[in-house]
Amino acid sequence: MDEALTPAAIKSDVERYLDEHARAIALLNDSIFYFGELGMQEFETAGLMTQLLEEAGFVVERGLSGFPTGFCATYGSGAPVLAIHTEYDANPDNSQQPWAVEATPIVMGAPGHCEGHNCNGAVLVAAAIATRRAMGRHGVKGTLKVFGAPAEEQLVSRPYFVRDGHFDDVDLAITPHVGGEFHVGYGVLQSALVSATFHFHGETAHAGVAPWKGRDALDAVVLMDLGIAQYREHMTPEMNCQRVITDGGHQPNVTPRHAAVWWYFRNSTAEGVSALFEQAKKIAQGAALMTNTTLEVELHSAVWPVRGNETLAGLIELEYSRIGAPLWSADENAFAMDLQKRAGVRDEGLRRSVKRNLGPSAQMRSANDAGDVSWKTPMAKLVFPSNVPNISFHHWAAGAALATSIAHKGALAGAKVLACSLIECFTNPAVVEQARQSFARETQDTPYYSLLPADQKPPVHLNEKAMSAWRPAMKAHYLRERPRFS
Ligand SMILES: [Zn+2]
């Protein structure tokens, strides 16, 4: 152990270490980008992340809450217990070539990163390793827990982690997330969400010759859709819902015996989203009754809205200002403006600003499975600038910057802010106490309870078939070089 330094000197050391490992951070960012793995299938991604954490001296617990690609890596002991956590999953049909300013899949139809969870994974690991190194060298006391959270896009893993007690001893938590500029909001930031598949069961028949012998499960899916469409008229502005039909039968002359529709229901509160889900179940029961089919509801997950703690937001905002946003090159800025034009959004280029809080943030329609963590312990969502502003996620254009120097610079800056925020919390016990007090005030009227039934199992096989179909073609694009953190 080196001599004890002041917190400011420890932060400078952390920043220097991360600057020296900019190439490793970029390689990790790009490795995860090309893995492009769907939720709960992040085997390459979680494998690489946990190896790097283990090599850096973390003790890694794999298979957290039954998720093969979920993990918790721990370093240190005693108080305070600080947690960082993030997601690293890709989306279906989101394969996009870096630097391309039109829709250009790397593998046509394959999964890919069109949001930037690859950058999230790089920031998490880089900040964890830099913080752990500083703790060891400079006698920083406490416990650092690093959670790998699979399947954010299916809103799955963290409600299970929280239900199973993995955050019970955590004093505060920070989750890094990609965006278009430095920003950390506070208040209720996102929506609550329930994810469930509605299965209808009927009977096959020759649909052309004797359709009256059949009981058509697809009819029930269609009628449920009509029922929800009618109900939309009566939804409050905070509610909305989306669906995909995951099974619509096999061929037109065989009446579908089974049909299934997968819904996401959103509302501003945990209570509200449960009520919307109950209404949807009534509509589905009506559809089953009308079609002489039977209904089976398969719950996948249910999450609380993400909230941000004001104390932590203030602390991170100071680190943003101290460290500063990346310096973008003229080429990077020109690329961003071109991309914004083609995506039909305001073509302002890249930002060097920190988005300031003038008060609590406006609640968004989006959701993130980190929500449950944020009602269990003070939490901040630390947004770092690895993507192009104004472009909406899951659009091809939101994938074009994610394995470029823009993403690399943003991830380096994000890792510095995350690591230095942790150093601040470890070395300044008053901050941890302030966060605890403000969190108690913020949540005093809303006691947390898990929306998941006690015996609910995670849907770990949800993306297994899709990922195994795409993986062979995607493997050809994996990077050959492995990131190294000395
Ligand atoms: Zn995300």
Question: What does this molecule look like?
Answer:
The structure is a single chain. The chain has 486 residues and is α/β, with parallel strands linked by helices. It has two domains: 7-190 and 305-475, Aminopeptidase (3-Layer(aba) Sandwich); 198-302, 2-Layer Sandwich (Alpha-Beta Plaits), CATH 3.30.70. 39% of the residues lie in helices and 17% in strands. The protein contains 13 helices and 14 strands. The protein has helices at residues 7-20, 22-35, 43-55, 117-138, 157-163, 217-232, 270-291, 310-323, 330-342, 371-376, 405-427, 429-443, 464-475, and strands spanning 59-62, 71-77, 81-86, 142-148, 172-179, 182-183, 187-188, 192-201, 240-247, 258-267, 294-303, 307-308, 354-355, 379-385. Strands 1-2-4-3-5-14 form a six-stranded mixed sheet. The protein has a four-stranded antiparallel sheet with strand order 9-10-8-11, with helices on both faces. The chain has a two-stranded parallel sheet with strand order 6-13. Strand 3 (81-86), helix 4 (117-138) and strand 4 (142-148) form a beta-alpha-beta unit. It is globular, with a radius of gyration of 23 Å. It starts with 6 loop residues before the first helix and ends in an 11-residue tail after the last helix. The mean pLDDT is 97. Bound molecules: zinc ion.
